[in-house]
Amino acid sequence: MTSAPEACEPGLLAPGWAGSPAAEATDDRAVLRALLDAEAALTRAQAGLGLAPARAADAVTEAADPARFDAHSLAERARGGGNPVIPLVADLTEAVGEEYGPYVHRGATSQDIMDSALMLVAARTLDLLLADLARTERASARLAARHRDTVMPGRTLTQHAVPTTFGLKAAGWRTLVLDARDRIGAVRDALPAQLGGAAGTLAAFEAYGAADPTALPAAYARELGLCAPALPWHTLRTPVADLAGCLAFAAGALGKIAADVLTLSRTEIGEVAEGSGGGSSAMPHKANPVRSTLIATAARRAPQLAAALYGSLSAEDERPAGAWHAEWEPLRDLLRLTGGAARDAAELTEDLRVRPDVMRAHLGLTHGLIVSERLSAELAPVLGRARAKALLTELAGRTYEEGRSMAELLSEVPELKNLDVGALTDPARYTGSAGAMTDRALERR
To answer: Which of 137, 370, 443, 444 has the fewest Cβ atoms within 10 Å of its own Cβ atom?
Structure first.
């Protein structure tokens, strides 16, 4: 019982979260710390309501030092009762001593401690995740402001569509990050403690002398820094479902950034590049977009982990067999994945290299056809709608056949001699309200 807890696995197969703040906040040491914090807070809450001696609260709090417990032993012995709380209570009771040991875990059930501890782990991890989202938001805002008027090809269904700006794209990234921040912040602020006793009735606390057992969950929540639950939520798993939703959304939102960077950093596009690309074991010339790759990995895995947590909503009786047990690993994995993706997204956006000259060059790949939408609208009043459509269809074919620009071909049309075809075909003059919408997006705080 007295050996220090072992570290969580180093993440050899999980480079997306290895070494991240979320990794440390969710490892076995962190879970053990949260379990012990939950046990100590329970005794303090009872002492505060006169249900336990103050010295008992002090003794349990002092004994609840993670360094005094063996996480490996607890994990092995957890098989006996199906969860690690049971062997932990035995070890903690022994550590507290004979006089105050009976006040350890008094009135609670294993799920009370396990749920409360996981809410603590989630709260501590979300705080770190929010800090990295804030970094990503600030970096995206700088990119949007700096490139407000940097024109680039807009792409739909993989093809050039009409011109857009990189500033508008980065503003969209920031908007998604802020949406994720708001959702995570709301869930973080509502994370509840869990206390209901054996079947959610608080009956044991009445047996131990509580005049109003319903006051105890609120006192317990205050000790933990969590919210007071309206009811015991042993089979009312809204808090876990909310965590699943906000984390999966955040991973997907960051995945959008990664998807854009992965596309735009292809060799044949090269409009952006990661500031420090990763190497290849076989090809010395490569600088792979590793940050984006790891974020994309998290975005692909997160929905399945969230689905497992949503699946546990259907829980029978007052406390179920298997439903809450099934949450532990996917919840930790989801916290780690999203936390790692937030770390990588911050590094990605802070170091992203943008290449406006390449973007501008790509605007000419279709010889001016990227502004065909504008030309259709501008030429219809001059030539008539049918004639304008027929002419543009003809000239579109000739641009490729003859290797000439749309501006050059239009200048040869007699009916258009009074039009400034150079201006009409300039992609930089057809970005619509991109700049204004970027400005508006950046007003959001």
So the answer is: 443
CA distance 421 to 408: 8
Q: Which of 319, 336, 355, 374 is catalytic?
A: 319
- Full-model pTM: 0.94
What is the widest separation between alpha-carbon atoms in the chain? Answer: 104
Go through 226-251 and write b for each residue having 16 or more CB atoms within 10 A of its CB, e for each that does not: bbebeebbbbebebbbbbbbbbbbbb
- Is residue 36 within 8 A of residue 92, CB to CB? The reply is yes
Grouping H, G, I as helix, E, B as strand and the rest as coil, residue 303 is helix
Phi, psi of 30 (to 5 degrees): -65, -40
Q: What is the mean pLDDT of each run of 10 residues along the chain (445 residues)?
A: 54 90 96 98 98 98 97 96 97 98 97 98 98 98 98 97 98 98 98 97 95 97 98 98 98 98 97 78 66 97 98 95 96 98 98 98 95 95 94 93 94 92 95 98 97
Catalytic residue among 280, 353, 429, 433: 280
